[in-house]
Design brief:
Layout (H helix, E strand, L loop, with lengths): L5 H5 L21 H11 L4 H7 L2 H13 L3 H9 L7 H11 L6 H10 L6 H15 L2 H6 L8 H13 L3 H12 L10 H9 L5 H13 L3 H8 L4 H15 L15 H18 L1 H15 L5 H17 L4 H7 L8 H14 L2 H9 L3 H4 L2 H13 L3 H11 L5 H10 L14 H8 L2 H11 L3 H14 L2 H13 L3 H10 L15 H11 L3 H12 L19 H10 L9 H4 L2 H18 L4 H10 L1 H8 L8 H6 L4 H19 L14 H5 L10
Helix pairs in contact: 2-4, 4-5, 4-6, 8-10, 10-11, 11-12, 13-14, 13-15, 13-16, 14-15, 15-16, 16-17, 16-18, 17-18, 18-19, 18-20, 19-20, 20-21, 21-23, 23-24, 23-25, 24-25, 26-29, 27-28, 28-30, 29-30, 31-35, 32-39, 33-35, 35-36, 36-37, 36-39
InterPro entries: Lysozyme-like_dom_sf (IPR023346), Lytic_TGlycoase_superhlx_L_sf (IPR037061), Lytic_TGlycosylase_superhlx_U (IPR008939), Transglycosylase_SLT_dom_1 (IPR008258)
Pfam families: SLT (PF01464)
Protein name: Transglycosylase SLT domain-containing protein
């Protein structure tokens, strides 16, 4: 149902609206309480009165409510009265989603053509292609324009479309590409793969090829299934592959030729020993010492070095003291950025400062000059008596507005850097940016509380703008009280330093109250919110954590049972409400601070990785005397980065009210959280 074109929307009214009636349309549909509210809204106010006195933003919400109530007649009446309104494409989008099973191809394609600038077109395009596949309308399917990555399900439907329209060669070629991966594809791809079987395009060699990819990618379940597709004469060999993968020690009693030709044997051996190296590095190291001489005929030098490197790195990751020795013993040609990094981390964990210097100095220039290794090189120089060199390196690094820049400033007792600051307001540029189509759409979506859509449009806008215009956009978002919009635009303008734009006091009243109730610093809650969600209330991670404080559903539900939040905390949609997310996240953080005896570093690590992992890490040899070393040697890269970001954010938030030129007291510096990092007495 296309009512008017983009040119008309450009001139439409975007008058300020009252508090939106419908919250987060799209995430909230289908909940009984929300549905009841929507129906109530849809049935209030006579249409004549609505058309003459109700602001367009409110009529927009009423039209969405009518859709939710399946009142299409009222929807059409309201939509017709919104001619020229800036969010009309999203109204059409909602209508098309609600009626997709009966939509006409011409209607959908016209909408897609008219809204290519908005990030809704790919979402609708994929849904529409899958609907056409359900209808088996292959002519319309192939006539629909493809934009960007169509995804696996659509690609598999495309195989069927090509086959049904006589384009057999193209269908087979696409099906082969979809088949030859080391992981399981969706069930909707089965018809595409059956086509390969029917036309003889899935010979045993291709099945073995995919089986080897499955072992390489750590999917033995898929590999076992693929064995069933092989001829009986080849199953014995394939099952031997699975046995070696499950227990690499079997290689001691096998000749590599029993695994097939050299190309296949080396893949089986490499996958099996790599898996063992990741999960049992000590046992793998001992086994490899016995196997390496025997496997020289099948594995070349680079392949043997890869196995030794994996074993050594995972020994270091697991915190085994010998990991450092094994990594140092690798030939220079066997090293990668990954192995050089873990050689340095292993030396750091072992307290081997000279070994740390040696490891950092083997790094290529680009890696050695990363702030993390510049800081630890400075620490190692100070610890080994090269005070002047260490102090000079730390002094240079202390000018950075970053976690390691702050740590370096603590080493040499300097004020923290403030980072690049926002440009002075440019009113003319703000007016120009404010008049842009995508700006107006994004801010209107924000006012309508459609936060996911607002964020998508905002990111599309920022990609189009020059740095100065991005800063103008940031100020426009700040004026609307949109923390995410201000933060992302300002940071991408280059002004990522300490300022209210990049470190906003989002939801401050709630944060301050919840922090007080749970005996946690409000600066810490803001720091975590900034890192967890960038102040996006409806965002969900790929792991399933949702809301401003990014709680996993099971954790939130558990917190609800312990507090007065009750069953509301178990509802993912309600968890996207800022107030509930902050209350649940604050309660969980308070619980973690309690069980870890007010140790901020341990509590924040547990918020990210879970208390079980943190307890296991704390039980390892005594590194807790220096929390910075402990963080830098954690086995989870995500948790290391998370801790560094949150602790940095916390210091910035704690100091935001202080003059930038004033030296902060120890309680407001990273050293106050991580323990003393000053130059050791012996070095002085």
């Amino acid at each position: 149902m296309i009512l008017f074109d983009e040119k008309e929307r450009e001139t439409g009214s975007i008058a300020s609206s009252p508090q939106p009636i419908l919250s987060r349309f799209g995430r909230r549909l289908g909940k009984p309480l929300r549905a009841a509210l929507l129906i109530a809204v849809a049935l209030t106010s006579p249409l004549a009165h609505a058309a003459t006195s109700t602001p367009p933003a409110e009529r927009y919400q009423q039209a969405l409510a009518a859709l939710q109530a399946d009142d299409f007649g009222r929807y059409r009446t309201l939509a017709a009265g919104l001619r020229g309104y800036i969010l009309q494409p999203y109204l059409e989008f909602a209508y098309l989603k609600a009626t997709l099973k009966t939509a006409e191809p011409a209607t959908v394609n016209r909408f897609l053509r008219r809204n290519t600038r908005l990030p809704i077109d790919n979402t609708l395009r994929r849904a529409w292609l899958l609907e056409l596949a359900r209808r088996a309308d292959w002519t319309a399917f192939l006539a629909t324009d493809v934009s960007g990555n169509e995804g696996t399900r659509v690609a598999c439907a495309r195989v069927r479309a090509l086959g049904a329209t006589g384009q057999t060669a193209r269908a087979t070629a696409l099906a082969k590409r979809l088949w030859l991966v080391g992981y399981s594809q969706p069930n909707s791809c089965n018809p595409a793969f059956k086509r390969l079987q029917r036309n003889g395009s899935m010979p045993a060699g291709r099945v073995r090829q995919r089986l080897l990819l499955a072992l390489r990618d750590g999917n033995p379940g898929l590999a076992r299934y693929l064995v069933t597709l092989l001829p009986d004469t080849q199953k014995k060999r394939a099952n031997r592959w699975l046995a070696v993968y499950a227990e690499p020690r079997k290689l001691l009693s096998l000749n590599w030729t029993e695994l097939g030709d050299r190309a296949e044997a080396k893949q089986v051996i490499g996958s099996a020993l790599a898996r063992m190296g990741r999960t049992q590095p000590t046992a793998a190291h001992a086994l490899w010492a016995r196997l390496e001489p025997r496997l020289k005929p099948v594995l070349n030098r680079a392949e043997r070095q890869r196995i030794a490197r994996i074993i050594a790195v995972f020994a270091a990751v697991d915190g085994l003291p010998q990991g450092e020795t094994w990594l140092a013993a690798l030939p220079a040609a066997a090293n990668t950025a990954w192995s050089r990094e873990w050689r340095a981390r292993a030396a750091l964990r072992n307290g081997d400062w000279r070994g740390l210097l040696a490891a950092v100095r083997t790094m290529p220039r680009w890696q050695r000059h990363l702030s993390v290794w510049r800081y630890w090189e400075a620490r190692a120089l100070l610890q080994t008596g090269a005070v002047a060199d260490g102090r000079k390196l730390a002094d240079t690094l202390s000018r950075q507005f970053s976690y390691y820049g702050f740590l370096a400033a603590d080493l040499v007792q300097r004020p923290y850097a403030q980072g690049p600051q926002p440009r002075p307001p440019d009113i003319a540029l703000q007016k120009k940016v404010g008049g842009m189509y995508l700006t107006r759409v994004a801010l209107a979506l924000h006012r309508a509380d459609q936060t996911d859509d607002a964020g998508s449009v905002w990111r599309a806008l920022i990609r189009e703008l020059a740095p100065a215009a991005r800063m103008a956009a940031a100020r426009l978002a700040q004026a609307q009280g949109w923390s995410y919009g201000a933060y992302t635009a300002a940071a991408q303008s280059g002004a990522y330093g300490r300022s209210p734009l990049t470190f906003p006091l989002a939801h401050w009243h709630t944060v301050r109250t919840v922090a007080h109730d749970n005996d946690v610093p409000p600066a810490l809650m803001l720091a975590m919110m900034r890192q967890e969600s960038a102040f996006q209330s409806t965002v969900c991670s790929t792991a399933g954590a949702c809301g401003l404080m990014q709680l996993m559903p099971a954790t939130a539900c558990w917190i609800g049972k312990r507090t007065d939040l009750g069953k509301d905390a178990c509802d993912l949609d309600l968890l996207s409400e800022p107030d509930l997310s902050i209350r649940a996240g604050g309660a969980y953080l308070g619980y973690l601070m309690n069980i870890f005896a007010d140790d901020t570093v341990a509590a924040v690590a547990a918020y990210n990785a879970g208390p079980g992992n943190v307890n296991a890490w704390l039980a390892q040899p005594a590194l807790r005397a220096d929390a910075a070393r402990w963080i830098a040697t954690l086995p989870f890269g995500e948790t290391r980065r998370y801790l560094e970001a949150v602790l940095f954010n916390r210091v910035v938030y704690a100091q935001r009210s202080r003059p930038s030129t004033e030296q902060a007291p120890a309680a407001l510096r990273l050293s106050g959280l991580l323990g003393s990092l000053s130059i050791p007495v012996s070095a002085k």
